[in-house]
Design goal:
Shape: globular
Structural class: alpha/beta
Strand order of the largest sheet: 7-6-15-16-17-14-18
Helix content: 25-40%
Strand content: 15-25%
Largest sheet: 7 strands, mixed
Number of helices: 16
Distance between the termini: 11 Å
Radius of gyration: 22 Å
Number of strands: 19
Amino acid sequence: MSTKIAVIGSGFSSLSAAAYLAQSGHQVTVFEKNDTVGGRARRLEKDGFTFDIGPSWYWMPDIFERFFADFGKKPSDYYHLDKLNPAYSVYFKDDRIQIGDNLDAIKKTFEEIEPGSGEKLQAFIDKSSENYDIAIRDLVYRPGESIIELVTPKTVKKLGAFIGNVSKDVRKKFKDPKLVSILEFPVLFLGATPGNTPSFYNFMNYADFGLGTWHPKGGMYEVILGMKKLAEDLGVVIRTNAPVTEILVSDDGHANGISLDGEVHLFDTVLSGADYHHSETLLQPKYRQYSEKYWSKKTFAPSSLIFYVGFDCKLKNVDHHNLFFDTDFTKHANEIYENPKWPEDPLFYANFTSITDNTAPEGCENGFFLIPLAPGLEDTPELREEYFQKIMDRFQKLTDQKIMDNILFKESFCVNDFKEAYNSYKGNAYGMANTLLQTAFLRPNLRSRTVKSLYFTGQLTVPGPGVPPSLISGKLAAQLINKHLST
């Protein structure tokens, strides 16, 4: 049965859902508040430089392959991928460690730092590979409607992995603090500290060391453009500069349309891929599932202060992806999750896609610098500038170069921008963290319990934060809509 479906937002989850719904024969219209598609994955172009505004890591390539295969396509039909070697560099106070593009090379690096750790790493990755297989086959493609979804013969055997945490597991096997930091890093993509992330999620280490780090030529936005083309080829209509101001509900309790500042559009079903909290504010209070108290008690993934910098020279001693772990990780984590405030000595991340790609003018470099922050912090131009100076001082020292006089321009994006551009709750950048009590059926529902024909998708619902989970979330929401339309 063909129905008219409105999709709010055009990020990874919304475009994914729109494509699946159109494939099922529905008439799908996407409404995006900004002037380009992509949600948090937009693109900045300035003076010949190109930057991904949002996501910059391409991990778990199998999830992208699976998405496109559902439509008889391949990623290569839309964009070209390069496997990065080194995958990334990690800077400490007195050292720089490069992570290779295969497990044998990484084991050799570990062995050089901590004798005996190479063999331990192989065993650790074997276990994380097993968890990855269970996660992909048995868990993440489930809609989070019941605890029963988590109970399979394989997951029952892994019960202990949901009680322990990643930090304890890593520290039992590895003693060198640098190796510990490298192994704890991947779970940060899940939005919580390693100490608050269930052991089972060490499958992210397999995503890192086993599947590798990739780069779509032209940047992550090329993936969005590929998904946009796929959706439009399937018949999806996409409207930009179209901010939805209300989700309409009929007298019998069905979502039956949307309003664009008074411009009413009627639909049979509404799916929102916008920030979940914001989406519910588009409803009258009596139709909202979750109170402000509910949201305030949840553990949100960090916000970010991001700088996009154009340099008039090529930089040295850096790779495509770079992590700066030269300060106290535990202290910075505490300043995000336990005692929210601007961090005293923040860890930060930098990428330079122009090392791999043609994303800067000849002889120039584009720099993307990111500091994780607690959501909801005060955000002022003065604070942004103070922290830019902080990280650039460290960056110059650690990479042994002076580059402040080589800056052509810099743009910044922080808490206030996340709120304004994406209606993001407290200006969070990555959605809701995947802690034990915020996993699967314990996350906000894909389907509204109070309004019929109203659904949600994205990083605040299942399966969680990150680009690959967002692709999956769109598929799950579409499947749920089809299931209920057929009954």
